[in-house]
Queue: 4 jobs
Job 1
Amino acid sequence: MLQAAAFYILAATAVISAFMVVAARNPVRAVLFLILTFFSAAGLFVMLGAEFLAMLLVIVYVGAVAVLFLFVVMMLDVDFAALKEGFLNYLPLGGVVALALVGILSLTGVTWVVSDTAGAALQSPVPADMANAEALGAILYDRYVFFFQLAGLVLLVAMIGAIVLTLRHREGVRRQNIARQVQRTREDGVEMVDVKSGEGIG
Amino acid sequence: MTATALLANLSLIIPELVLAIGAMGLLLAGVFIKGEEAAARLVSLAAMALLILAAGVAVFLAPQGGGTAFFGAFVLDSFSLYAKAVIYLAAAIALVLAGHYLQTERLARFEYPVLILLATLGMSVMVSAGDLIALYLGLELQSLALYILAAFNRDSLRASEAGLKYFVLGALSSGLLLYGASLVYGFAGSTDFNAIALAAEAPSIGLIFGMVFVVSGLAFKISAAPFHMWTPDVYEGAPTPVTAFFATAPKLAAMVLLIRVLMEPFGAMADQWQQITIVLAVLSMAIGAFGALLQTNIKRLMAYSSIGNVGYALVGLSAGSEAAVWAVLLYMTLYVIGVAGAFGVILSMRRAEGMVERIEDLAGLSRNRPGLALAFTGLLLSIGGMPFLVGFFGKLFVFYAAVQAGLVWLVVIAGVFSAVSIAYYLMVLKRVWFDEPTGGEFINPPASVAVITRVTGIATVGLLLVVPFMLNRVIEAGSAIGG
């Protein structure tokens, strides 16, 4: 009973806040609603017994992605009202795409229900004596450790590429040198001048 | 996986470990060595040493009988070991060719050898792939490093364009490949090659679809027509030593990967993929032969030549037999040797005012540099498959495999295109031997490049003596996978 109530509350929040992401006039509010959507989805994951995924969703999507969005929205001077002007013009096309997506999803759902073998795939439960994170780790760092390390190397190459292709050491750029700042003494910084009264130093 | 099981697995991937750890170590070392040029030179030398060490490990320290590691994702057999040894050595040659050019063009940076090492690591994983995920990760590791290398001269508009074009089309091909892989996984129920091979014995229409997409994705990587559009532009735009690298090791690695994919997981579907490889072969040979006739840039010419040569390799592969496997392996090895040398000559085309790369700049080469002209003649004719140079035997065995499988008509077509392609090699050589010199003399090539051109030039004839020995090696390698 309590579970059902929690599910309906979380699901309703997710749907409403997702709608508000699109509908909100103020972009900062839209991002905040997005964060709320993520939180409700995380709650749904917890109810499914996937606490690790819930944690990931909060840490990665809320902690990193949404905050990045917020930065972008707040730092760039984008006129969102102007962006939304053509909304009605694009509605038919958008509607068709949305309908197609709904069609694909329902087709998948129906096939899943009708299929004899799909049920077996559903039932690969987490071992009872193992936490979520442990079960995922046991697969990722054991069965698939080779792929995991390779993926790491691919990311390393991407990083090298970004640096090789974009980093430039420009001449004549003044950079902060903390060691020099700290080493600066009173003698370097202060000059004592004996000024006669009434004459100035010009 | 227990610790002993992990160690047993790691013992099979020692060459890869050498490359991966070496590349990361060199990346660190490069940052700490004072001076950009000194860092580049030292890291480059160390990378060559690592590649030769890895090749040595692959040849001499490989466990007897091979084996599989990481639940079948990594396959070590004589086939992959042979490919690895050739790939490592080809990468080392590419580094030798690059050193002087990068210094004079002010591109000497230590990331270059590190990226070559990582690309080589990707190829090494590709040729050992026993699983669709390993296939994709290896391919992507390789390609990503190659995209960066293509745009390595970031101040040049042409190089940036080449890098971007290569990246976008490469991403497209990866998309095709992944879509195919997802279909294969869906209809075979596994990403493991052995499991796919079982499903391929009675292929469903979905599996055939998936296979077609996977092969299309790989055809991009070997630049077989009609997936060749990127090749001429990228070959022309990228810095010449990078082009030399593109034309050798990655081409061989992608071809070896294609052979494994067609022969192992899709081995039972030969009837289906044979049609694809035949179409790819005929189109590639045609575009390679006729596209090259009108080129004025020597690097573009080499691009079309590589498209054509992939076509001949695919003629052999269409046979789908054990003989096809070793014939293509031998053909690609000889091709890599020839192309490495030819690019050595192209890198020697330097006048006092800088590099030149138009074909007409070669005019009168025979008078200024008879040795270089002779080597170039041998190399080009060997790539073209002129009788009694070593490349001829590569083509001969490829055609032999196809005839054996009853594809006589395909071999006849290949013969015709081969004759056409000899024509454009001869047009280049006419410039070299008979035309009056137009510009100034070429300045002395650096010793490193001169050694490569001489050794490969002599190899076009000298390797004839060791063809029987090479045959033994490739037949042994082919037996691991064919049949």
Note: The longest helix of chain A spans residues 87-114.
Job 2
Amino acid sequence: MTNPLLRRIGLALAAPVLAAVFALVISALVLELSGSDSIDTFRTIGSNGLKLETFVDTLNRATPLFLAGVAAAIGFRMNLFNIGVEGQYILAGFAAAVVGAELNAYALPGFVHTAAIIGTAMLVGAAWAGLSGLLKVTRGINEVISTIMLNFIATGGIVAALLPKVITDPTAANQGTDEIAERAWLPELNGLLEIVTREIGKGRRLTGVFLIAVIVGVIYHVVVNRTVFGYDLRSSGMNPFAAFAGGVPPKKMVFLAMVLSGLVAGLVGMPEILSENHAYDQGFIQGLGFGGIAIALLGRNSALGMTFAALLFGFLDSSSAVLQVQASASAEIVKIMQATFLLAAVVAYEFVSRIRQRDEVARASVATDVAVDSAAIGGASA
Amino acid sequence: MTWLTNLPAWARWAGAAALGMLLLTIVQSVSGTELLTEEGTAQAMVRWSIPILLAGLGGLYSERAGIVNIGLEGMMILGTWFGAWGALNWGPWGGLLAGLVGGALGGLLHAIATVSFGVDQIISGVAINILAPGLTRYLSERVFSGEAGGSVSQSPRVDGFDSFTVPGLADGLGTIRDQDIFWISDMAGFARGLVAEMSFFTLFGLLMVPLSGWLLWKTKVGLRLRICGENPIAGESLGVNIYGHKYLGVIISGALSGLAGAFIVLELAGLYRGGQTTGRGFIGLAALVFGNWRAIGVLAGSLLFSYPFGLSLVDFNAESSGEATRAVLLVIAIALVGVAVWAFRANKRNDVILAGLIAAIALIWYLSTDTAASWLPNTMPYALVLIVLFFASQRLRGPRTAGLPYRKGET
């Protein structure tokens, strides 16, 4: 590969492709070692992937993962590790469900009701994340520790303490908040998809939050890459001292990045609240915050990369359900695949970035050699 | 007060513990509960502190070698599964060893990623935390679900270690306890809980504290390991094998976390269950920070953080369930008033206001309730971590280059 452009493109693709191959090999090994047929398992996953219903399911699962990924990525861009997306979205989802149920009693237009729910979620998420930011800025407490602690305080403390107080029917099978009135539900987007496809069966409904995720993705991309604020954010992440010298207040940036991260984190639970359960109950989906961190790492914090990563993980999650039904192999193999892929990918990224650096050094030294040579020739001729 | 700072660390912590006991005794007499310094409370506290302690010590080795290990939780999860599997096949010692090996494998993975490949340490740790539950779930589905009492998320029951009582000491402390002398008898009773009916695994965990302190601060290996965390480039110039010692630190870290997992399975739960670590690896990390990256400090942190939980175990089984846990609120309030006074003398106005504010909240909470809710003890350790870090974070100092990437030959 002598062509530098080809080499650059090759390097960019090499990492994820290598990681994917590695993950497939490892999972095949695990499957074979534990007595399952790996080819058969992969075929099941593959043939399932071609179905339209799987596609809808994948989009539904990818939507909250992508949002959680963006939330984590906003922090990562600044070298801030918001491990607390988990607690932020669960607390936000709970608060939004409570507010949503309370508003049932008032005569409101549907969109106001919806907006109030989404607004509550975003504000609560932002406040909870902002608390970590504040602790870091005022007291220098590492955000990794504080967000982890706040995760536990949010889920084991606040939600556990308040949930029993809002349950109106203590005999219900799944204890939770009251269902939100239908006017506030987000419309399903099946119609949108069916413009280009056949009718979607099996009762699959594409969540309306999908559109919100697309909008968030676009805003994220534009703000980070095309605005002064995004530039400040990235530069303080890369070199806080240089950014400070350039007039970017580091403390303010830390706090803002945490708040924005929490703002997006608040949206992660919205598919549950606005499209699926319309309530917060004990079965409220957990683990999306950590999934989002994986998405941000895989997608290298870029909107496009995270889109692919979320779709991939969403698809794998969806396959896990199929494997469960068909019982040809443990559905848990999917989790192993995801985690190996993630580990392999971060190693491969690091590897590729080192090759890039070496290229850069080589290019620079060639350039200086040329400059020195021509200077020497110039000196000789004079 | 130079004599105070000249005391050895264990003596200072012992003094702090005695003062803490005095506070507990006073609160106890005010709020009419007897559980705060009860023998059973001490016993539960120690038992539940061991996983936190082992994970915290694990973090100590790793961070002293310059590698931040967020993956403690994941390695602990590996320890739970391997511990149960080993115990099912070869009894408790097999479980202990298998848990150790399982955790060490997780540590090896972290070391390969961070030391050899230079992956960001937090990222690798997060990845391990995602990998471990998936892997153990897969393994249980394959191994445990075929057996009686086992399933995809649970192993059959396993046996734990035998327990023993330190002879003489326990009787002596029992005698002092029965004398009913204010503070002294409470301390004796509490201490008796620490030496009576102790499991061998608990003893094993506690012995890791002096062992780690000795290994890290009194041996050559320890010195070399610590230079990896303070100034690897200087170490390199002296011919220290930095990569090798970093590997060593992170693998020991994983092994100790694995032991923590095995302890949960063998001593606390009696079986493997998915999600049973409940974030103890992270509390271990917090105990490490609280203990200022010292072995004895980690012990103090893990005892402090497991106290509310140990108390709640005794408290919520007792008749007046929740009363003693409520009394802890008063303890916190008084301790924070102490912090406020100290901050006032040090002329830190903001600290005085904040400590006073939190103390007031705790006091009002105490006064306005009769019993504590059952969720409170589960949350207290985490809140405690934040409060401690809030007032003390600027006095704590970790290894200088922990978390930073290091490549041989680069400055």
Note: The interface with chain A takes residues 70, 109, 113, 117-120, 122-124, 126-131, 133-135, 137-138, 141-142, 152, 279, 282, 285-286, 289, 373, 375-376, 378-379, 382-383, 385-386, 389-390, 393-394 of chain B (CB under 8 Å).
Job 3
Amino acid sequence: MKPVIAILKRDLLLAWRQGGGVGTAIGFFLTVMVLLPLGIGPDLGLLQKIAPGGLWIALLLSVLLSADRIYQIDYDDGSLEQMTLGPVPLELVAGAKAMAHWLSSGLPLAIAAPFLGFLLNLDTKLILPLLGAMVLGSIGLSLLASLGAAVTVGLRKGGLLVSLLVLPLYVPVLIFGISASAAGQAGPDISGSSFIILLAVTLVIVVVTPIASGAALRTFMR
Amino acid sequence: MKLIGENLVCERGGRTVFSGISFTAESGELLVLRGRNGAGKTSLLRMIAGLNEPVGGQMELQGGRDDEDIALQCQFIAHQEAFKPAMTVAENLQFWSDFFGGGDILDALEAFSLEPLADFSAALLSAGQKRRLALGRLAMIDRPVWLLDEPTVGLDVNSTEQLRQLMRKHLDGGGIILATTHIDLGIKETAVLDFNAVDDQAELTSIGEAE
């Protein structure tokens, strides 16, 4: 377990020192949230209606924005090569790096979202369900983004490819995430069951993506 | 302990890099890989480190830990140093020590006299200092087989001597070293694996004549 914790600690330290990932992602998130109401106009009822969807889409794109760097630098400077010789399989390395990405960009965004939601006149009843669904959903988003990053790690300018590969996989998280967030609008029953499906989707992603990422990284190393 | 490779064949991108390479390296022995550029010296090291799959032939580490891959008993010092410029020298070493379950980072710093630089950012190091930092990993992580790819590149005379001492100590402790290098490290127990010898002789002479 020690190697995994070491990677987690190092990636968080690097994210904190370099600031790139988190800063860019939160800056992007904030920009979208500020511009959206300006673009749509001062219709409070309309804004309230689209608030959860707007927040989710902004979260999704922000996570994707910082994703292509998850493995790229480690691949370029030879760290990944050293990690293949480590005492833990590459699958766990991939899992640890994706977890660090979630802690440094997905989680802060999910926590910031309800507050930025005030710019969209977000219904206060929705704050808690939205926060819960986003914290859970962002785990899946980070892991899927890390899978896209792993599959394109050896390619220059893989950014576009990451988006194309990952966006379809984001759809289930987005659909059940939004319907779990929209408690007041659709009724508590629907949002409760959506939350459970979101949990199931996330669990599947947690199990499958590190294995797939590990395999992809191993292929690129050869 | 004995590392054996038999009739190894390496293919990269559809091209056969080398074929029919066999070697034996015993405890306390340095095996130097020689050959022209592109002969596959680095590819062989990467193969032993599990980064290339051999297309043919087999490898075996006798007397090692049988339950572990050969790769897990190797330390591979490649061209890339694998250090983060945003972290200090000490933090970088501490990470690799934690990751590999290694020992005290002081050993790594002392082996190449890097103690004064411990608290400085790794971004400030010169090429030679980065190389020393990478080689320092050898001193703090305990693995029996060392795979060194051009370890002396960028090193000054003193550091080369420190590397020689470190290798000496490892060999005396029963370790095995495979290294690609073009300089004489002054280690007695040296065997040479010559990649040119197994190559097509005609091709070699024609290269020689052209020069």
Note: Confidence is low (pLDDT under 50) at residues 201-211 of chain B.
Job 4
Amino acid sequence: MIKALLRGYRIALTALIAVGLLSSCSTSADSRYFGKTEPPAENILRYISGPEPEILDPQISDGQPEARIYMALFEGLVEYGPKDQQPIPALAKRWEISSKVDEFVFHLRDDAKWSDGKPITARDFVYSYRRGFDPKTISRTAQLGFFVKYSEAFKSGGVFVKKGDSYLLEKDFGATEHERAPQLGPETEHNKFMRSASRLVLDGDEKKRAKALAADPKLAEAVNGAELVPVKAEDIGVEAIDDRSVRITLRQSAPFFLGLLAHQFFRLVPEHVVEKHGKNWTRPQNIVTNGAFKVKEHRPYDALILEKDPNYWDAANVGLDGIHFYPIEELSTIMNLYKAGSIDAMLNHVVPSSWIGEIRQYKDEYLDFPEIALAYYSMNTQKAPFNDIKVRKAFIAGLDREALSSFRKITQPLYAISPTGTFPDYDKARDRVSEELRKEQGVAPEEWAKKGRFDRELAHKLLGEAGFPVVKKGDGWECPTFPTDTISITYNTNENNRAVAEFIQAQWKQNLGITVPLKTMEFKAFLPYMKGLEYSGFSQFLWSGDYMDPYSFLSLMYGPSNEGATGYYDPKFDKMLDEANSELDPIKRYDTLARAEFYLLDQAPVVPLTVNATNWLKKPYLKGMYPNPGTLIPWKFVYIERDPAKWDRDVSNIMTTPDARVDKHLADLVSSNSK
Amino acid sequence: MEEVEKTTAGTSLWSDAWKRLRRNKLAFVSLCFLAFMVVAVIAGPSIIFWTTGFTYESTPTDRALVRAFPPSLLHPMGTDDQGRDMLARVLQGGRVSLMVGIISTIVSLIVGVSYGAIAGYLGGKIDNIMMRIVDVIYAIPYILIVIVLLSVFGGASTPAWIKWLSTNIGGAQNQGLSQLFLLFFALGLVSWLTMARVVRGQILSLKNQDFVMAARATGVGTFGIIFRHLIPNALGPVVVYATLTIPSVMLTEAFLSFLGLGVQAPYASWGSLADIGIKNLAIYPWQLIFPGVTMALTLFALNFVGDGLRDALDPQTRKF
Amino acid sequence: MIPMALLVVSLTWGLIRIAPGNFYSTERKLPAAVEATIRAKYGLDDPWYKQYATMMSNVVRGDFGDSLKYQGQTVNEIIWRHLPYSATIGILAYLFALIVGLGAGTYAALKQNSILDFGPMSLAMFGLSIPNFVLAPVLVMIFAFWLYALPPARWGGFSSLILPVITLGAIYAAYIARLTRAGMLEVLRSDFIRTARAKGLNDRTVLLRHAFRGGILPVISFTGPALAALLAGTVVVEKVYALPGLGDIFIKAVLNRDEPLVLGIVAFLSILIMAFNLIVDISYGFLDPRIRYE
């Protein structure tokens, strides 16, 4: 019987040892590539796009996985550039921008068609934008477009106030009127309306309006007896001048707006199909698209199969015959499929951190580039003890972020609010302003360099000043009075989030003697807990920029009910941002933004943690695909190279390595704008 | 005097069973192993702390040590990605896993066996209603139950008795542990259902046998028949099923940990350790092998003990 | 059965409403007006009893409406589209488990306490002791990367089903083996088998005609819920092998608070479970002459 017992154990042990041996085999990879590397038989890309897309309507959903699919199916006025994500011509072949960046005229190409052959006209844009801003459209991204004049008023069901023949104006009630740049294009009725002084907009909801009026007697007086006119779709700042020209008017200067126009929210939807099929228009049998590819078959949770669209205006230059998007989330499964050669590339953030060491040796495949995505820990500035800026600063100073990023292997430490490394010009502005501030405050350079960095003594001093003295205990520290039982580090459940939280917990324990409990929550329970400021202490906060501008991050703390989930609101900071955006010279604008950023940093509403890296793999035969900061790949540039001699080598240089095909394609497109 | 005690004791079901169990060497060795495991997870973490200073959550202060190291004399099971001692984590994880398994199984034994037996014996409409209740509870997704339990009782509004449990049994008053006890509760709530079905099936086949008729004829009440006559006769499958419940509950806990509804970091369970280990299998195999082997051996032993118990408790045991 | 399912649906509905979070929240804050539009569209500001009544009247008609997450797809459509995937894998896995489990269990019972008992039983215990999220990657490693014999993931052809079926079936095979062994031992000792033997029937007849029928009773009572669970898909296997089954969709629906989809799958499953249990109850009578229904 003992024999039998031993036998049972032996089976178990043999199997486990076999696993050990197996794994040691796989680590000693001696081949040049990770797994099977053969171009697919057909000229079709097989790509992992992340979770199953919610819907194929670019104006509804807000996820990155869908955004990547929309880039194949739908096009807007401009498209993200393959390498730097800066706007390149798409349906607009050229455009004019007013001197104050508050008005745009786009000239459309003549040969653009929907996948069913119907020509695309300026009216399609007017329809799409009005639909997006319509309060009836449940769009999660419409607020990105609120720079378009009166779009916010339309979306939130606001009303104009009409008294006699004229409307009440904003400037008469305390707002500063934006001074408009000289007009672009022909004068029309709509344009006259857009250029006239901004009308006052009140809340459409009676209760909310009454509340606002009660707070402002002057306003109540003026509104009394006036007619309330709901803001209509025609009132937003979008206009078809003729069949081939679209004019967009903004409420203020927005220097980054052109880049925003490549966002999924501004991609076209087909009026004739949406109006005919209603909510069913995105079904495979109904859907009509205008991108380089069209839907061939959709098997939810299995594959979304696209084929090249012959009606696409640039079809001659599209490199692939089709794309298969596979919706898979399990990281190890994605890695297995890649290794087996069943897929050619994948979305970002896929390689698990423990694998990085091994995967890095595949220099022709592993893409590790800075992203416009970063990680903070938000602090609830409304709950004690984190309502005390000294406590907040102590926790920032008590965290060694160099150690954190070396532990994570794929991230860079972050000491600012917006990412470093992705906006080179802004990085320069930040250095300039930092130097100016140092001189203003008369601090020695070596002292200044330490600002915001890991500094245990400073952390102890700040905690002591805040009433929580840190005392020596054995080899470590202890802070007995700090109320650890009421605070926590809250994060939504995810392998990486857990590793980061455990690491930071250990850091604070070692450096400050404070053990902050961890609290993991599933995502949907986490969101209201974080956004509703129910948490106390720290909350995980991950953000990716919506456009290539630091404002996409700085605006997280803009306004009284901002996205930042910290409870922090400072009109002074808002004013600095407004000033920056009304600045027309890009260099001066960046300087002003940088000043605002340093101001915010000094207020310490968040613990900046890390800047993310792209962290994905592509097979070397896949060309024209670049690790841009948002992993937003314009699919028409991608092609499969069958000659191994021309495959990608050492992709750390991929951004600067010339590719005749892509470079020419890009040059041709960009040159249309200068004609 | 001693002699007398022995003989009287020998006639009772349990001491008889104990004798038989001891004769079953396989089961006995497994029982010893389990006893060793229990002692190890209770005393082990303290011993490690006294001798080396490692705990399940202590990350080395030296930045260079914050990474995975293979097994060595200092770390017999190696370290995890954060440089924490795997042995300490495996032992602490064992505490959680064994507690999850045992508490839920006890609940399933007490509730499931009595429920199934009563339903099976009474039969008819009552049986029908009772089993339909089981069906209804069975059909409600337990993830939803766990989510709701954690949100309603987690955090500040944790009931006092859960706080009491985590303070007095878990050894620390802390949010992570409170959540753990909620988890025991949630798993216990669903783990008795299959047991009830199994027991009912057994009772249905036993209740018309002669010994029940005889008992009824001699005036034994319903309660007596169920608990003195029927249940002991149905113990075989019950014990086997109970030993199956422990691993399945442990696996459920691992799955819930995976969804973020299980044990809170930096606490670990064998399931959550294996879940992390399997992801690192190709790079740091020891992170899977040690928790995996420990868990597998424990479950092995549990199963052998279950078999032994079944044989020992069976009143009809004899060589076939 | 239908009232039971409605009760399950009602309780589930209550649980979803108590659970924190809602289907429309994401990292990005929604403008108040958009949120108001959503709440108005789905009647979320109505009193709860009115929302409950609306939901129930739809459910009674078998119409669960559209998924909230996958807008434009109906719940019924999603269930019927993904059921075949789950059913194929589930039924194959259960067949695998039945063949292996019944064989090993019976064999072990007949050779009780011999090496031929402990061999298969140790193996069964081994199957029980390995979580399937550990077994799956190990199998993938061996068969997809070591032997290059089978694909590592995704649906497509018979070869892609082998690993998921083994992964899913292993634990059930182990359960069945152990339940069969226990049940068989119980029966082999009972009086009617002794009678059968005394009548001079040979071992094979005793085994197949009498003992087996009674011995697999515990297996039968286990089969109902097990088969229902298998048909509903198994999350881990679907995740690891990237299969479009119902289990993963269901977990995601719960995590997304996709109420109609959760209710639809729960209603479907509860009917399935109850149907299976009913079949199990009826088959008891046929299999075991000792059971009589009053």
Note: Chain C touches chain B through 64 residues (CB under 8 Å).
